[in-house]
Design a protein that fits this description.
Layout (H helix, E strand, L loop, with lengths): L20 E5 L1 H4 L9 H19 L2 E6 H8 L4 H8 L5 E5 L3 H11 L5 H12 L4 E3 L3 H7 L7 E2 L1 H8 L6
Parallel strand pairs: 1-2, 1-4, 2-3, 4-5
Length: about 170
């Protein structure tokens, strides 16, 4: 899938080519509802993330997960958060295992300055044929822009793209 490029605030018309959009949400995106909701940005990203999850439940989007997400989530010291995020595993259409090809792709992503977990999320999203990686991590968003084979958007951008807010 070609990357959506913002042109004058609009995303190109491409969704008609895709039957069901495949989303990969990283752990910071799953955890956004637990952040300080007094900040407008966090509150809006939380709402957009929850709508994206509704789209997954409705079957309008497919969720792609990875063993990296499971491993990282297992380290969350808050049991309720760990459990809430873990329940989404059952709704995923694919759980990418971390094999040698994913590790090799993660190493390439690390060359762009990504940390290990972020690089593994990127590599897993690519291996899982995700149409977009949804994250609230600004650094990750900036670094993925340099990659030709993956689109990364914050929750609001992903929702705007899915719902074609900027198409006229």
């Amino acid at each position: 899938m070609p990357r959506p490029a913002a042109v004058d605030g609009a995303y190109p018309v491409r969704l008609r080519e895709i039957q069901t959009v495949r989303l990969y949400l990283d752990l910071c995106c799953f955890n956004r509802p637990y952040d300080d909701q007094s900040q407008t940005r966090i509150r809006l990203e939380t709402q957009a993330k929850l709508v994206l999850q509704d789209r997954v439940r409705e079957g309008a989007c497919d969720l792609v997960r990875s063993a990296t997400l499971d491993f990282e989530n297992a380290k969350n010291p808050f049991a309720a958060r760990r459990h809430a995020t873990g329940k989404w595993r059952a709704l995923a259409v694919e759980c990418v295992t971390i094999d040698q090809s994913v590790i090799a792709r993660a190493r390439e992503a690390m060359d762009l300055g990504l940390g290990e977990y972020d690089a593994l999320h990127v590599a897993a999203a690519i291996a899982g044929r995700a149409d977009m990686l949804v994250t609230t991590d600004d650094k990750l968003l900036r670094r993925v822009r340099a990659m030709p084979d993956l689109t990364a958007l914050p929750p609001g951008g992903a929702l705007a793209y899915l719902e074609r807010w900027y198409e006229n």
